[in-house]
Amino acid sequence: MKAQMVRERAPEVxxxxxxxxxxAEAAPFVTIVVPxxxxxxRIASCLESILAxxxxxxxxxxxxxxxxxxxxxxxxxxxxSERYPLIRLVDNPKKHIxxxxxxxxxxxxxxxxxxxxxxxxYQPEYIxxxxxxxxxxGAENAGGVWKMVPGADTVTARAIVLGLGxxxxxxxxxxxxxxxxxxxxx
Length: 186
Description:
CATH architecture of the domain at 27-124: Alpha-Beta Complex
Largest sheet: 4 strands, parallel
Structural class: alpha/beta
Number of helices: 7
CATH superfamily of the domain at 27-124: Spore Coat Polysaccharide Biosynthesis Protein SpsA, Chain A
Helix content: 25-40%
Strand content: 5-15%
Radius of gyration: 18 Å
Distance between the termini: 17 Å
């Protein structure tokens, strides 16, 4: 049996055809946790996509949990931290994603914590939609469907994307195969 949750609805404002989002002063403070290691080629585009999100910047922080990168990742993140005070570089000396998440949670100031991948980019409404759907459904976690693209222009890379984006290759992982409407996932 599912427990019913009653939530007070926050004031909302309409956006351009998307679900309503809260006014900035009513939005929960969100911590974005970004585990990474040696993501020199992709970390900037990841951070740019998070910064381009429509979620109020004064209501979020971005923690980049670096697994002691040996390429230019740390320097790139440090540069972003200097320009954007909401971004912090935090060491993950154990180098593993579960450890990064634990460190991120321990350092988070947010009422909500979203984990994102350093080698991914996010649509401009990603954060506000995650928060919206958490509130709408009383979900502990919310996320989107991956749009997988080949990492290289090769037959093998295209085959991997084709396989992972199909139920045969990913089973019931809706995050990979897609859905037509919001759904509960394992």
